[in-house]
Each structure stands twice: as C-alpha cells, then as structure tokens.
Design goal:
Layout (H helix, E strand, L loop, with lengths): L1 H9 L16 H14 L3 H25 L3 H14 L3
Helix pairs in contact: 2-3, 3-4
C-alpha cells in the first residue's frame, strides 16, 4: 500500500484512504469490502476461500492494468504486487 500511495502522491492523484481500517471513501469499494468480510467470517474454510478470491481479483486487476500502463514506476510497483499475489 505504501508504494501505491507514494505513486499517487508523486503523480498528484488523490488516494482513497480513510483513517480507519476497513473504511473506504468510494461506496463501491466499501460495499465489496463489507461483502467479502461477511463472506469470510462464516468459518475458517470460508475465510480461506475468500482470501483466495481476493488474490484472484488482485491478479486480474493488476494483469489488466499492466497491459495498458506505460509508466515504468507504476509497472515496477504493480509487477511487485503481482508477485505477492501468486502462489509459489
């Protein structure tokens, strides 16, 4: 997150951070977060499946963006984030 926030600030873009964990300024992101927390709170198995779903969503989002982005700083950060979401 720190690397993404640094990119946003460096390039003059606003971030969506709110001071409290789990609170988001964008309603769609808040709704998704609340849905995933509810889904993952049912059981340990549900939590693991929800965590895997989140990683799959991250991989798709990052892969989609890496096809079109040309900024080397953004590419480097996003590729590192992608590495963190892959299974070894």
């Amino acid at each position: 997150m720190n690397a993404v926030i640094t990119l946003l600030k460096y390039y003059g873009n606003p971030d969506t951070l709110v001071a409290d964990p789990g609170v988001f300024a964008i309603a769609e992101i808040q709704a998704l977060y609340d849905e995933l927390v509810a889904k993952g709170s049912v059981s340990v198995d549900a939590a693991m499946l929800t965590g895997a779903l989140i990683e799959e969503m991250d991989i798709k989002d990052l892969t989609d963006v890496l096809v079109v982005v040309t900024n080397e700083n953004v590419i480097r950060v996003f590729e590192n984030l992608l590495k963190g979401s892959r299974i070894i």
